[in-house]
Amino acid sequence: MSRVGKFFVLGTCLVAPCLRTWYLTMERIVKVQGSRGAISKVLLDQGLFAPCFIVLFISSASTLNGLSPKEIQINLKRDYPEILLTNWKLWPATQLANFYFVPFQHRILVVNIVALVWNTYLAFKTNQPTS
After folding, report:
1. Beta strand residue intervals within the chain, DSSP E
2. Residue 50 within any structural domain of the chain
3. Partner of 60 at 20 to 30 A CA spacing, among 17, 68, 84, 94?
């Protein structure tokens, strides 16, 4: 399967359903509006969802690349810290603006636009051979 095909599968079977469910869950959990609500959502998103989702994403992408469970574990140990730190350089500011300024029905669209850059980075990082 080509890299484009793998990312299509990841996007439609993993990313889209997870993001939709997560955004709906955050709307139910965080009742506060305005800046306090936006900050609360960023803290939940980047403190809870992102660290877990990155593990799920790396594992899924590595599985689609045909890696064994041991190779996936090696990749996670090697790449996870860097990917998480890079995530925190991009997404908190993006999400703060997203949660504060963008109406709920358009938030996933904003994430998808920024994700074009993010996914390019992830495609590179998850396609590295194990060492």
Report:
1. none
2. yes
3. 94
